[in-house]
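Practice problem: predict the structure.
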Amino acid sequence: MENINLDDCKYLGHGENGKVYLMPNGKAIKICKNEEVCKEEYEVLKIAKKKKSHYFPKIYKRDGNIMIREYVDGKNLREYIKKNGLSKKLAVNLIKMIEEFKKLGFKRLDMRGAHIYVVKNEKVKVIDPSMQLIKEVKYPRRMLKDLKKLEVQKKFYRVLKKKRPKLYHDWRKLEKRNN
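Answer:
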């Protein structure tokens, strides 16, 4: 990987898995704490790229515990909903995102609101897809929990029930079993 001077980059934030910076060329660089986690996230992003999924940032390269990917400009789901509420369009986009996880063959059909970014036209992108290939979660448990804390879960469920009645039934059943 080319020499990258972090002093030339803008610090964007950090999480459990590492730190993220915006490079002068407009791409994001993630420096992971753990190379195995980096490798797993990279594999998820490669699958998404190969299947032309627009719910994930494009991945460019990985070397050890460093990866370079597309920068996602937007607000995380929690921040966005606090400011703008949950529209029907956003709810549908969240449903389609989870359906895409299943189509991509992921075991984990879940994502924390902090890792879901709302971008232009209320489209959504996942910025930190970890454990999608390893951990089995059959419904969006953490996302629904976040929506409940934001007091928009009932509205989300109304949209889900109308648009995807079978999914509504399945997710409600799994949620009740896990509470």
